[in-house]
Amino acid sequence: MIHVLAFYLFAILVVSSGALTILSRNPVHSVLWLILAFFNAAGLMILLGAEFIAMLLVIVYVGAVVVLFLFVVMMLDIDFAELRAGFVSYLPFGLLIALVLLAEIVLGIGLWSAGPVELAQRAAPANPELSNIQAIGGILYTRYIFLFEAAGIVLLVAMIGAIVLTHRARGGVRGQNVAKQNRRRPQDAVRNINQPVGQGVEL
Amino acid sequence: MTAFFQGLGLPFEGAWLLSTIIGILVIALPLMLAVAMIIYADRKIWAAMALRRGPNVVGPLGLLQSFADGLKVFLQETIVPSASNKALFLIAPIITFTVALMAWAVIPFGAGVLVSNINVGLLYILAISSLGVYGVVLAGWASNSKYPFYSAIRASAQMISYEVSIGFILITVVLWAGSFNMSAIVESQKGYYGFLNGNGFNPLLFPMAIMFLISAMAETARAPFDLTEAESELVAGYQTEYSSMAFALFWLGEYANVILMCGLNAILFWGGYLPPFDWAPLYLVPGIIWFLLKIAFFFFVFSWVKATVPRYRYDQLMRLGWKIFLPTSLFFVFLVSGFLMLTRYGGAQ
Is B160 on the interface with A (CB under 8 A)? Predict the structure, then answer.
């Protein structure tokens, strides 16, 4: 009973906040609706018993990615009228992409539920004693270890690429050398002199 | 407790719902009282270190000061700036406060004494604490004012930076405990060298305990990392435009978060509800007493640091997070997992 109620609550909230993400006029509101959508999607995953994925969704997307979105959107000065202007001309293209995605989802789910993976699952269901993390770790670090490491390398290359693209060595900047500052002692910097009256200081 | 309500003739789901709601109230209401008292303690400790008396007028020894402040704030008018984004302006403090309460669901107060014993307890805490930044960012943006906005930008950068190193520090503890479950993490700390309880006595994890304490201060934006409300630069930071209960919610949420971080220090590194020594008579004292004593100790450390350490500059804060804590904690993840691979999991093959 509570399960069913929770499912409908989360599902309705995901769909409606997803719709409001596109429909709201203020981009900051859009980002906030997106957060709500992610949060409720995490709730749906908990109902499925995939608590590890749910937590990762919240930590990675809500905790990091969307904060950066919000960061950028808050600082942008967006002209809403200009943003709206292209709506009609892009509409057919957007609908096409939506159709392709829908077809892919239907095909994917259809093939999965009739395909060898699902049949194998039914024949030998996953061990319910195993926790989420152990189950995912067990399959990720054994059968898919090369794909997993390849994904890691792709991310590393992307990270280095992003740093190389944005890093510029600017001339004339005096950086702070913390070790040097910490090594500095009063006797290196301060000198006591007995200054006679009426004469200039020699530095 | 679910079984008790089922015994009264309720169906399982109703009994579960009722017992969970009671569990939440049993934690949340004393927590509010604890926040009021800990604000008083904070002011007293701070005053003592500055050779002042601190609050001493309202009630015996000034004990009722926080309640008087709360009443004063409650009777004030809520002012919403006309240029602000009204809905978000009012939602922001509610988010801060709610998020500060949510994380307590998985904190074990004693063996088996917690609302929700989920397998991914520590990840849940990480997820909830990563939501905390939204209250601050939204408050800063919705106020539509310069200083709150600067504060919001600082807050988001600061919290993201320190969450990264906190994540790695948590991983070292999880590796050692072999579980994300909070109770399992506490139980795994029993009997270091046969008589000590606590990961902090482990030479591989002790540096992590220190780093976690410092990161916890940065994550809750406590002094010396309180750049989000640095009064000499940003008036009151993101709270500048707030008054009345909206302001009080920020206040309560902030201190509830500080207590939570003190509790996490105790749970992850100093044995949580276990007594500090693995000696049978000490187990006669209920676990919650030990846990609260440890929280009180860490709160004293927080106040002590607040009273004595000058505020960091923003670039120093970022340097500490990204250039010192991140590489060091990453190195310790490598070190701890390597050590466990060689000893516990026999990885020489």
Answer: yes
Chain A CA closest to residue B126 = A59
Do B307 and B326 reside in the same domain of the chain?
A: yes
| A51 SS3 class | helix
Number of other residues whose CB lies within 10 A of the CB of residue A124: 7
CA-nearest of B145, B137, B141, B5 to A66 is B137
**Tens digit of pLDDT for each residue in B67-107?**
888 888 888 888 888 877 788 888 888 888 888 888 888 88
- Dist CA B278 CA B270 (whole Å): 12
Same domain, B207 and B317: yes
Beta pairing partners, B277: B196
Between B202 and A103, residue with greater pLDDT? A103
With a cut of 70, say whether residue B336 has pLDDT above it.
yes
Are the CB atoms for A139 and A147 separated by under 8 Å?
A: no
- Determine whether the interchain pair B119/A132 forms a contact, defined as Cβ–Cβ distance below 8 Å: yes
Is residue A146 situated within a structural domain? yes
Q: Structure tokens of B231?
A: 């009064």
Question: Do residues B181 and B317 both lie within one domain?
Answer: yes
* C-alpha dist (Å) from residue A52 to A7, A22, A58, A60, B129: 18, 28, 10, 12, 16
Question: Quick check: B97 and B249 in contact, CB under 8 A?
Answer: yes
* Any domain includes A153: yes
Chain A: give the shortest CA distance to residue B309, in Å: 17
Q: Taking Cα atoms as reference points, which of B75, B71, B77, B83 lies closest to residue B36?
A: B71
Average pLDDT, chain B: 83
- Whether residue A74 lies within 8 A of chain B, CB to CB, comes out as yes
Substitution target in B180, B314, B323, B337 with the highest count of A β-carbons within 10 Å is B180
Note whether A7 contacts B: Cβ–Cβ < 8 A. no
Asked whether residue A122 is domain-assigned, the answer is no
Q: Give the domain extent around B21.
A: 1-74
CATH of the domain at A54: 1.20.120.1200
Query: Is A157 contained in some domain?
Result: yes
Q: Please tell me whether residues B136 and B262 are part of one structural domain.
A: yes
Q: Of B74, B107, B129, which residue is a domain's last?
A: B74
The nearest alpha carbon in chain A to B118 belongs to A51
10 Å CB burial of residue A197 (0-12, 13-18, 19+) is exposed
pTM, 2 dp: 0.82
Does A141 lie in the same domain as A72? no
| Total number of residues shown for chain B | 349
Range of the domain at A142: 133-169
Instruction: Count up the domains in chain B and report the number.
Output: 2
Establish if A169 touches chain B: CB-CB under 8 angstroms. Answer: no
A70 and A2 housed in the same domain? yes
Mean pLDDT of A191-195: 82
Give the separation between CA B5 and CA B15, rounded to whole angstroms: 5
Q: At what angle do helices B65-75 and B244-269 cross, to 10 degrees?
A: 140
Largest pairwise CA distance in chain A: 102
CB of B246 within 8 Å of a chain A CB? The answer is: no
Domain end point (choices B74, B94, B118): B74
Separation in Å, CA of B132 to nearest CA in chain A: 9
